[in-house]
Amino acid sequence: MTEQIYALWRRMEQGWALGDAAVFAGVFAEDVDFVTVRGEELYGRRAVAAGHALLFAGPYRDTKLTAEISLIKPLADGISLVHVTSSIAPAGITTHAQAVVVQRADGWEIAAFHNMIPKGKS
């Protein structure tokens, strides 16, 4: 289980490095609830991909996302809470996310994601 959860963030990092919003968003559930660092609520994988396509074409073009998982807490069979700190270079941005990951028939995916910039880290 743990390795499969880590793999979600590795795929997210790959999508970011490629500037490929579809690959980045591919780790999220089709019906994901996603809160951005600005507090915007995105519903669904398509909305996450569309939002990140704009970021990758603009302010985050040619940047690198590095994620560090600090907590994987099983909540029930096939459901875990995950805490992740991510860095975006060379932008110098650090984010913290809390995610709920769920196990589906074809593997793990992120069902809920709340991302924020910790005070004093922007």
Automatic annotation (TrEMBL):
Pfam families: DUF4440
Residue ranges occupied by any DUF4440 domain in the UniProt entry: 6-110
InterPro entries: DUF4440 (IPR027843), NTF2-like_dom_sf (IPR032710), Steroid_delta5-4_isomerase (IPR011944)
Domain of life of the organism encoding this protein: Bacteria
Protein name, as recorded: SgcJ/EcaC family oxidoreductase
Lineage start: Bacteria, Bacillati, Actinomycetota, Actinomycetes, Pseudonocardiales
